[in-house]
Amino acid sequence: MKKIMVGLIIFTLTLSVTASVRVITYNVLNFGGNDEDRLPFFETIFNDVDADLFLLQEIEDGIGGELLLSVINNGTNDFSGARYLNGPDTNNFLIYRNSLITFGSQDTIATDLRDISEFELIIDGNLIRFYSCHLKASEGYENERLEEVTKLRNHLSQLNEGSEFIIVGDMNFYTSSELAYQKFIADEGNNIGRAEDLSDQVGEWHNNSNYTEVHTQSTRSTQFGGGASGGLDDRFDFIFSSYQLNNGAGIEYIDETITSFGNDGEHFNMSINDGTNSVVSPEVADALYEASDHLPVFADFNTIISSEPMIVVRIPNIEEEWQQGTEHIIEWVSSSFNDNVKIELQDETSEEREVLAASTENDGEWTWDIPLEQLLGDYKIVISDAVDGNPIDESNNPFHIIEPTTDYTIYEIQYSTTGPSPLEGVQVITYGIVTAVGDYGFFLQDGTGAWNGIFVYEYGTTISQGDEIDITATVAEYYDKTELADIEEYIVLTSGNLLPEAISLSTINVNQEDYEGVLVQVNNAECIDDSLGNGEWLVDDGSGEIIIGDLMYAFVPEIGEFYDIIGVVDYSYSSFKIEPRYSNDINITSSVQESIVNIDFDLYNYPNPFNPSTTIFFELTAKNAKNAKITIYNLKGQKVKNLSPSLCHPEFIEGQGETQYSVTWNGHDNNDQPVSSGIYFYKLISGDFKHTKKMLLLK
């Protein structure tokens, strides 16, 4: 008998799994560029949660997104942000860790209230789509939420079979029986877009103590800052994944990691920082209370490394408008693929393709000079392997070839008798001199007078005051302020130019749209309120009030003091305001009482300029001198030194019934610390009368 030996060889497939990726969703409660006071709280939260991918809802403007990115980076460049796309309401914003995630492209899914954002990201060679939602709030709007989820699921159903995705956001579901929730998880004929809730805590969440550990709103028992109140009693913030996500490929959910951050299950109907919180420090609990009325929710994922070649078209991708005769950069990213690529232009009407580049380096960028004779219409960019066409990708949405932009003056952009600019939404070319520069943009003016100024939004701008520029940008209305946004390009023609002369106005006349963005001056305006909040104060020259802001320069005024003020006119929070640019824009003047009574203190100091000390001289009758005092201020209006009358040295003046007094200032503040070089004001007050002079300390 012959024996046959059968060898059984067992192959073990080892999946290469990387370190986990933490994904967080967070409704940040209407956060915008004017909410910097909440940044320290977000910084505390973000440092503690240590996430890799942030999907944020209720972002009011691009500045808000950039501010949150800055606190997450905390002085590094570890994180980047997606493009801020301004929709019809508050918007979503994505921030990702550069070392783990490659940004592919982004898109929006329009709904009746707010856009749903789509982000295509590459993680370890896998294309994963993330969706950030903020569905219609409140009970009684279940049908509206169902419509929003239906639009998202219809979009998902068009993806390729096996596509993996994560859906996050503020869903405003009160119960898992709600039709919109059921639409997410329903078993339908097309299940490409079917999702599953990563939490197993399903049921009637609203005001139900059985679900205390998954509640995410509200962090506050009392209402403030525009947020909800009532304490933690609703599960509104969710993370869904594509159905049966854990299939041994792509991204894998790590079981039981979904967490309502900061919720210890012991704060039902209470503020998150009431008493002791057993899962976060008191500092973090306080930050969660102050930052937003929602808790962030996070979940951890592993990814299986993929070597499948991939190309993702990044730009154009979101229905951009490109003009005939202009230059644009086509962008893409690739994974596990380094060969040359072919770039084609696909006509969306005929579906015919024109080769723009038969073979170009796969470096992620290619510049296209659009011919002046390029036909107007809708197109997509198709990028593929230059040899065999695989891998391949195309723009998610068509972009539009349009006619060249027309030149307009700032006056033509601004002038309107009905409110918004007649050119709202139009890309324009305009010209002007930069009159002021702030953190979030600059003011541009062409000539002097009404309708000749405008604000240009550019966060972190490198432009300088006095630059003469040509700019191509889109006219936008930002909460009723006309501005230039979405800058296509600007060219600095010359630098160091003289600025247009500030137009002199009464304080009441500054409060009109005619002077929005224009350099103006008001004179002898009395401070009638020194603390409106947010660094703003109020002045009136007798004609009516105007707000003085601190967009570019913060000044501490004194009630009853009179000022000459120069600045550009801005409009925010439904109010016009003058925005001084630096210390020289604010000068203290004499009071009305002084000019009426014609009191002459013969006030002066010597030497002036001085170093290290100067003597201040003034003349008063003995009666007036009894309650006289001298105060030193810096250019910001802050008190530096109070000079005691007991330090004054009297010298009687024959025949005048007055006495000359003198007091020496040694250049030190009230803490006896030497002050820096610069301009200082000294103010003499005697009874109801005041007089102010200027002096210069040189070191």
Structure characteristics:
699 residues; mainly beta; Deoxyribonuclease I, Chain A; Immunoglobulin-like; OB fold (Dihydrolipoamide Acetyltransferase, E2P); 5 domains; 7-stranded mixed beta sheet; 43 strands; globular; disordered N terminus
SSE layout:
Blueprint: E1 21-31, H1 39-49, E2 53-59, H2 62-73, E3 79-81, E4 91-97, E5 102-109, E6 116-123, E7 126-134, H3 142-156, E8 164-170, H4 179-185, E9 195-197, E10 237-242, E11 251-253, E12 259-260, H5 282-291, E13 297-303, E14 310-315, E15 321-323, E16 327-335, E17 341-347, E18 353-360, E19 365-369, E20 377-385, E21 392-394, E22 399-402, E23 406-407, H6 410-414, E24 427-438, E25 441-445, E26 453-457, E27 468-478, E28 481-494, E29 503-504, E30 519-533, E31 536-540, E32 545-548, E33 562-572, E34 575-579, E35 586-589, H7 592-597, E36 604-606, E37 614-620, H8 622-625, E38 629-633, E39 639-643, E40 649-653, E41 658-665, E42 678-686, E43 689-697
Parallel strand pairs: 1-2, 7-8, 15-22, 23-24, 26-28, 29-30, 32-34
Antiparallel strand pairs: 1-13, 2-4, 3-4, 5-6, 6-7, 8-10, 9-10, 11-13, 12-13, 14-16, 16-19, 17-18, 17-20, 20-21, 20-22, 24-25, 24-27, 25-26, 27-28, 30-31, 30-33, 31-32, 33-34, 33-35, 36-37, 37-41, 38-39, 38-42, 40-41, 42-43
Molecular shape: globular
Radius of gyration: 32 Å
Structurally, how many domains make up the residues?
Answer: 5
The low-pLDDT segments are 1-14, 591-599, 652-657
How many strand elements?
Answer: 43
Helix content: 10-25%
Report, as a whole number of angstroms, the end-to-end distance.
112 Å
Helix and strand composition category: mainly beta
CATH superfamily of the largest domain: Endonuclease/exonuclease/phosphatase
Share of β-strand residues: 35-45%
SS element count, helices: 8
Second CATH tier, the architecture of the largest domain: 4-Layer Sandwich
Average residue pLDDT: 90
What is the C-level CATH assignment of the largest domain?
A: Alpha Beta
Write down the CATH topology of the largest domain: Deoxyribonuclease I, Chain A
The major sheet is characterized as: 7 strands, mixed
